[in-house]
Amino acid sequence: MYSICDCRYTTRPPFCDGIHYDLPLRYLKKIKDCPKAPHDPAVTKLCEECGWAGPRESWPELPSTDSDESSLSDSDLDEEDLAKKKQLHEEASLKREAANKPKVQVQVQSTAQTQDNGTGDLDSRMEIDDEVQEGVAYKIGCSGACQTDPSEISKIAAEIQRVNLSS
Hints:
It comes from Lunasporangiospora selenospora. Helix content is 41%, strand content 4%. It is mainly alpha-helical. It folds into two domains: 1-62, no CATH class; 105-166, no CATH class. The chain is elongated and about 90 Å long. The termini are far apart.
């Protein structure tokens, strides 16, 4: 069984000293039953029998990684850099939100109203009826998932614009 451990030596087992339960139980048993036990806490050299490496407090610090060096705290930044950082964060969150929202929908007036006004020809209204479902037309410029003919899209766009202008 594995669980999370903060000793940072978990990528190279069995460097954990047995206090942490990030290693399989077989390693813990190996440490407990090691013929060289009890291990000297002052010795931080890796035990070749069981993998015990001394108490965690005596382990050397791991070298810093690139991500540690590149992440600056807000207190290290001046006001301009802090404002830029916040602006970039806001822009990224707005882009994420926009990507996760559904496509924009345009409300279309019913064709019965256009017949009452006497505007437009009947054929174009019939084509819109085929494409419009429950009075909602999807914004033109889809992601390519639809199979609509481009000539049909231009006819629909013209009719939507004409209907909106006539009201």
